[in-house]
Every structure is written in C-alpha cells, then in structure tokens.
C-alpha cells in the first residue's frame, strides 16, 4: 500500500526534494521552536547551545510514545509544558502537510490509484445489490500506514483549512482542522459502508477512526449518510480523471 513510492513525480518533487520542506525548516529555526529549546536548557540548567533541535524532537517523541503506549508521565515529559507541546504538535503537522497533505497537489494525487480502487469496489457492490444479486465481496480490508491514509483523506477533501500551514502562521492556526494527532492516531482507519435501504436507495456512510464523519462539501440533512449517487456526483471530476500514471508522470522542462 505504498503507492506513492511508485509515483515518479511525487518522489522527485517532494520525497527526494529537500526544498519541499522549506517551510518545515524555517519553522524549526523560527522563534517558536527556538523558545522551546531554550526553555529545555533553562530547566536543565545548561547553555542554550547544548540543546539542539534533534535533541528536542527526540525528547518530545520519547515523551509522546511512552504516554501513548504505557500511559505513564515519562520523565521526558517534564522537559515540556503545554505551550511547548502545542509548538511541537504544529511542527509535526507542518511536516505532514507538506509531505503527505495539502502542501503539494501531487501529494494527494499520488493516491488516485487507491481512490479508484475504492470506488470500483463500491460500484461493483452497488450494481450487484441493485440487480438483486448477492454481493460477492461484502467486505474489503486494505492495510497500510498513516502515509497511505493521509493522501487519500486529502484527496477526498477532509480537514482542509482555509489557509495553508506555513512557518509564519502558527499563532493563527490554533483552531486548524489539519491536526494529524486527531486524524491519524494509532490504528487509524477509514471505513466506507454502503447501505441498501431498499427501492434503489443506496447510501454511503464514511467513518474515520470508528466515528461518523461527513464528506466535505456535502452539507444536506442526510450528509452523514448521503445517497451514493450524490457522493459520486460530488467526486465526479476525480472519478473521470485522477489517473495515477498521468498524474505521476515526469514532464521534461521546455528547452
């Protein structure tokens, strides 16, 4: 499920391109992150120069992993206060935004192949149900990683803010929707359930991490379980295009 590894344009323009992370690098060198490292140095009573960004990241993730896995308040957590945690959380979101999220169009387009596979399976089940036949593939389970799920969520339009995450707008992004700690916890999952309500009334319910969500842009009273045809109409442009081979092709620069 690492389709993005086969997307030449994504690999060249984002994955293997250091400049693609320019906003992340700027934030790491910015005042918010600098203040976090200085506060750690103050708590440890060591010179500021002794604490690097890599040390700060390592300490924060050790704190986070031990809290998440063992439910313990690790000694590493004592190096951070709540504001520090918010800054570190934003730094993580910023990286995911530019490497797997809305930062570059190819990030989401790299999941075109998965997008079409999902809807092809739904269409097959819908057609069999309409014909009164037993659905041959009642359940499909596909397993991947956060790097698999985030581009698809982005392609579907979930958690898109009005402004892009950048190195300079941390203060205005406190209420952002793009928050990977909520979107992609451990065992993150996206579930699409197709219901046959009788009389050709097919409806599609999306659930993210076992919680109902609504497709972005579908705001009717039945948005939590819209007509399957309405969902297809909403994503018509992607369904008619979003070709993996075309989107991932490397184009030669004009001479």
TrEMBL record:
- Claim: Ribosomal protein is one of the keywords in the record: no
Gene3D superfamilies in the record:
Phosphoglycerate mutase-like
What single Pfam family name could you report for this chain, choosing any that match? His_Phos_2
Which positions, given as ranges, span the membrane?
Answer: none
Q: What are the entry keywords?
A: Hydrolase
Tell me yes or no: is Electron transport among this UniProt entry's keywords. Answer: no
Q: Which SUPFAM superfamilies match?
A: Phosphoglycerate mutase-like (SSF53254)
Instruction: Please name the GO terms that the record assigns under molecular function.
Output: acid phosphatase activity; inositol phosphate phosphatase activity
What is the protein named? Multiple inositol polyphosphate phosphatase 1
Q: Which organism is it from?
A: Liparis tanakae (Tanaka's snailfish)
Name of encoding gene: MINPP1_0
């Amino acid at each position: 499920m690492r389709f993005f590894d086969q997307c030449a344009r994504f690999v060249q323009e984002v994955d293997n391109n250091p400049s693609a992370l320019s906003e992340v690098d700027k934030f790491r060198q910015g005042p918010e992150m600098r203040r976090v490292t200085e506060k750690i140095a103050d708590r440890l009573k060591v010179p500021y120069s002794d604490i690097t960004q890599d040390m700060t990241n390592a300490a924060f993730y050790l704190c986070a992993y031990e809290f998440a896995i063992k439910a313990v308040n690790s000694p590493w957590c004592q190096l951070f206060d709540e504001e520090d945690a918010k800054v570190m959380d934003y730094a993580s979101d910023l990286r995911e935004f530019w490497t797997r999220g809305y930062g570059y169009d190819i990030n989401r387009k790299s999941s075109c192949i998965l997008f079409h596979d999902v809807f092809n399976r739904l269409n097959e089940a819908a057609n069999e149900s309409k014909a009164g036949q037993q659905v041959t593939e009642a359940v499909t389970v596909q397993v991947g990683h956060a790097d698999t799920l985030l581009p698809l969520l982005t392609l579907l339009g979930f958690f898109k803010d009005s402004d892009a995450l950048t190195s300079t707008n941390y203060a205005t992004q406190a209420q952002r929707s793009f928050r990977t700690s909520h979107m992609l916890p451990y065992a993150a999952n996206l579930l699409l359930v197709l219901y046959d309500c009788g009389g050709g009334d097919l409806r599609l319910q999306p659930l993210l991490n076992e919680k109902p969500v609504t497709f972005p842009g579908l705001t009717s009273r039945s948005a939590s379980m819209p007509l399957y045809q309405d969902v297809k109409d909403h994503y018509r442009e992607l369904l008619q295009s979003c070709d993996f081979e075309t989107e991932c092709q490397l184009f030669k620069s004009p001479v």
